[in-house]
Design brief:
Layout: E1 13-19, E2 23-30, E3 37-42, H1 47-58, E4 64-69, H2 73-79, E5 85-90, H3 92-102, H4 110-124, H5 136-169, H6 173-176, H7 183-191, H8 195-200, H9 203-212, H10 220-230, H11 238-274, H12 279-283, H13 289-300, H14 310-317, E6 322-326, E7 329-333, H15 340-353, H16 358-369, H17 374-395, H18 401-410
Parallel strand pairs: 1-4, 4-5
Antiparallel strand pairs: 1-2, 2-3, 6-7
Amino acid sequence: MTRSEINPTEFAAYIGIDWADQKHDICLQEASSNQIESLRLDHKPDSISNWVAQLRQRFQGKPIAIALEQKRGGLLYSLMHYEFIVLYPINPKALSSYRQAFATSGAKDDPVDAGLLQEMVRLHRNKLRPWTPDDPLTRELSLLVEYRRRLVDDRTYLTNRLQALLKQYFPQALDWAGELGSLLAIDFLTQWAQLEAIKKASPDEVRDFYRAHGCRLGEKLPQRLAEISAAQPLTTDKAVVTASITMVQALLEPLRGLIAGIESFDQQIKACYEQHPDKEIFNSLPGAGPVLAPRLLTAFSADRERYQSAEEIQCFSGIAPVTERSGKTKFVRRRLACPKFVRQSFHEFANSSIKWSRWARAYYDQQRHRGNKHHEAIRALAYKWIRIIYRCWQDHEPYDEVVYIAKLELRGSPLAKLIPAQAE
């Protein structure tokens, strides 16, 4: 049963969640009971997944309606993949008005808000718009790109450990083996796990190895062979060398499996992405490429009614900063309550775009000249990119760099004067 087919009378329970940085207040009422249950979850990675598993078992997988504040992107993202949960994002202003109707002080209190959210979805769900899940193709692509990133993170973790080991006893391999996350490096270390082993190899063996892996050293090969011949071990401590080799060998096979897994994901993502009707929009973004374009597509989804403005996705993704005020004090900080993978996707795309987009490079440089650090400048650039992509997404039109720069010049934007002329 899809969420669109669920009859509102079939909900087994109604839940309101008030999400905070350190704790999460939950109010639950079964459809067949007048009893209100209150629960508080700590902000731990497994808390939500364990709680959802308990709900599934308790209500035997029957549909459950959950109301939560619309701007809480992290919570929304955590729950949106469960098929038996129907989410009702509530506009914070609507919750505030509902709160003031029953509390003249208007004071905010997390447990009370959780109860009000539960009451809103239980009594007024016919006036609320549920979160519509993506079509199967977009959902599949969304899971594929996220799972791929997890494998990439695992590969990075293992290559960092491998690098630390090699620095202890065989630092020359960091130059000779190539990028540690590649099959070239894994095969190199499988064949020559220590300096003594490669020094025993003949020049022809070394030459054949590099050629077999498509690594054409050309004129650098004699230099590489000379380096190998003249190299001296960093340590002759047998205990260090033996233990380090054993550990290196233990890391190589998991790394080989991760590389194969990432390649498999790349193939599936490409096949899935090529079928998507929105692919041309995201292919047109400068610097997106085969990895980031599918991630940006899934961040926006295929549902054009999901976000009513670019600001909504800026806040949901965590790219938009949070402004806090206390008395006469005002400060701006990075948004923490958000789906980290979505924020990471926009951040990485913005960083990549400065190499491919003239206006993005000019805007980044402008931010740096104003004193912003690298990541602050990239987030500011991502904020602007979301507005641009949102318009292209809504209009079903690919991005055109020439058109956008022309509009900047037409509006007399100060940024237009900073954009370098396009090379002939």
